[in-house]
């Protein structure tokens, strides 16, 4: 059987690269490099990163802003890793052009690096609205941005965050956690409108207000002007907000300029097929810069799934590996705010069966969207022991039990009781979505000698993505520890005197 080789000609056998170049050293690029090296110790790897830092977990940048994590605590790789694993890392050296004819990338310092396979992991860039004075604000995207925000926050008396999506909410909560009064200004009529319905957005806004964040929705920023030693954020209608710090969190868009200049097909992102290949078979694209089946994913789990597929193909570990899309779950886990949203959350009773519970004063909102007896969407705002079970039902498309209330409130008569009872979580249940780690794999690590969360994370990478699964991993580990202690007690009791 013939396969398409890396140079585009049909040939027999397995296509295996000898020279891999990765452009981009963020969450997707660095994961690809580690996945490739784990499969193949010999392939020559060169990675270019525009930032001079080692790769870091962007999902946890709100922890840096809040002061609960130091910058080095969100690193994905220690700088020494590259030398230890024979990887050439060109950090702080962006790539400026791709010469497809000679299969070479040209870096900003003038060097040229040849490739057999090129992987573009360019990520995304912040959207800067066309507002007068936008350059007076600080975008919230990189560790450098965090340092600029923190430097200004030390002397600020008030902050304004523009943008009420996931990043904006995280930035606002992080700054408020430092004791800084914050106003969150959002153009849409409710927060996180891409993931939440109107009522959930309202409940989230009230929760943030209790945590020191004043929320202004349906507000259009027209200018950011100097005002003494600070700034004045002007809104349509004439209102102005005096502030010392303005943070932009108005969304992101895929970085596609390099691919477009090289003549690759670009739509919203760099267009790829199920092998994550562009229209040039020697070039793949992964992560936030790419568009697969019409979708650009902005979450870490799809990027890491894509990296694993490309690593399998490049090394020949699995020539049949394909990426077929991801069922995404958005998790927000800032201090005092817990939120999970998945699937078609904004459908109403006219479109599907909807089960809903809300308690605005307590910051609780739970909504299930059901079609053909399957869970197609859910919003869980506030502490909910049902998150794990509902995520599994959504992932698998499994039939739901008749007791819908029991799904929202595990522990009620008729509920399946799985959530909140780590001993009953089935082995096949995915605990860490970012790294696709199941409960069974965690139990296997325990049996192999991993006796705490850190050891489980080292063996499986669980908790190292968005971090929202940490409580679930801790619960399973605690349950295993209690089980073993109970077994030891029983064994001691059975020993004859």
Automatic annotation (TrEMBL):
This is Assimilatory nitrate reductase (NADH) beta subunit. It comes from the Bacteria. Belongs to the nitrite and sulfite reductase 4Fe-4S domain family. InterPro entries: BFD-like_2Fe2S-bd_dom, BFD-like_2Fe2S-bd_dom_sf, FAD/NAD-bd_sf, FAD/NAD-binding_dom, FAD/NAD-linked_Rdtase_dimer_sf, NasD-like, Rubredoxin_C. Residues 19-306 form the FAD/NAD(P)-binding domain. Residues 329-386 form the NADH-rubredoxin oxidoreductase C-terminal domain. Its cofactor is FAD; [4Fe-4S] cluster; siroheme. Pathway: Nitrogen metabolism; nitrate reduction (assimilation). Keywords: FAD, Flavoprotein, Heme, Iron, Iron-sulfur, Metal-binding, Oxidoreductase. Residues 431-478 form the BFD-like [2Fe-2S]-binding domain. GO terms for molecular function: iron-sulfur cluster binding; metal ion binding; oxidoreductase activity.
């Amino acid at each position: 059987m013939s396969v398409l080789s890396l140079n585009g000609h049909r040939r027999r056998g397995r296509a295996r690269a000898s020279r891999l170049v990765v452009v981009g050293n963020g969450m997707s690029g660095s994961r690809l490099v580690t996945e490739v090296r784990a499969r193949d110790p010999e392939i020559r790897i060169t990675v270019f990163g525009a930032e001079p830092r080692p790769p870091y977990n962007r999902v946890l940048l709100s922890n840096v802003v809040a002061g609960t994590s130091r910058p080095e605590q969100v690193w994905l790789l220690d700088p020494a890793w590259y030398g230890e694993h024979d990887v050439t890392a060109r950090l702080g050296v962006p790539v400026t052009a791709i010469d497809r004819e000679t299969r070479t990338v040209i870096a900003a310092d003038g060097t040229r690096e040849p490739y057999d396979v090129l992987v573009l992991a360019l990520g995304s860039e912040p959207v800067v609205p066309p507002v007068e004075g936008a350059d007076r604000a600080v975008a919230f995207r990189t560790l450098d941005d965090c340092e600029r925000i923190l430097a200004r926050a030390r002397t600020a008396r008030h902050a304004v965050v523009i943008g009420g999506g996931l990043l904006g909410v995280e930035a606002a909560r992080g700054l408020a956690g430092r004791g800084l009064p914050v106003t969150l200004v959002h153009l849409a009529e409710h927060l996180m409108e891409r993931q939440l319905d109107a009522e959930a957005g309202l409940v989230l806004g009230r929760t943030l207000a209790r945590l020191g964040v004043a929320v202004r929705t349906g507000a259009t920023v027209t200018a950011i002007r100097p005002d003494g030693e600070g700034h004045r954020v002007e809104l349509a209608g004439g209102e102005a907000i005096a502030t010392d710090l303005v943070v932009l969190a108005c969304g992101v868009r895929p970085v596609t300029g390099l691919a477009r200049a090289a003549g690759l097909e670009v739509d919203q992102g760099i267009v790829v097929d199920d092998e994550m290949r562009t229209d040039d078979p020697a070039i793949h694209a992964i992560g936030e810069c790419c568009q697969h089946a019409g979708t650009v994913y902005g979450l870490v789990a799809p990027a890491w799934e894509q990296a694993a597929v490309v690593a399998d193909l490049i090394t020949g570990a699995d020539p049949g590996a394909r990426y077929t899309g991801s069922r995404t779950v958005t998790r927000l886990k800032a201090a005092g705010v817990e939120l999970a949203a998945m699937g078609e959350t904004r459908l109403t009773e006219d479109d599907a069966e909807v089960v809903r519970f809300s308690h605005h004063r307590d910051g609780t909102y739970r909504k299930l969207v059901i079609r053909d007896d399957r869970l197609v969407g859910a919003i869980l705002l506030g502490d909910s022991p049902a998150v794990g079970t509902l995520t599994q039902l959504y992932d698998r498309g499994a039939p739901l039990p008749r007791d819908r209330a029991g799904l929202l409130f595990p522990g009620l008569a008729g509920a399946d009781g799985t959530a909140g009872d780590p001993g009953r979580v089935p082995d096949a249940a995915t605990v860490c979505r970012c790294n696709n780690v199941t409960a069974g794999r965690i139990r296997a690590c325990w049996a192999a000698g991993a006796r705490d969360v850190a050891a489980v994370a080292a063996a499986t990478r669980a908790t190292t993505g968005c971090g929202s699964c940490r409580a679930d991993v801790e619960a399973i580990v605690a349950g295993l520890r209690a089980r073993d202690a109970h077994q030891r007690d029983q064994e001691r009791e059975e020993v004859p005197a």
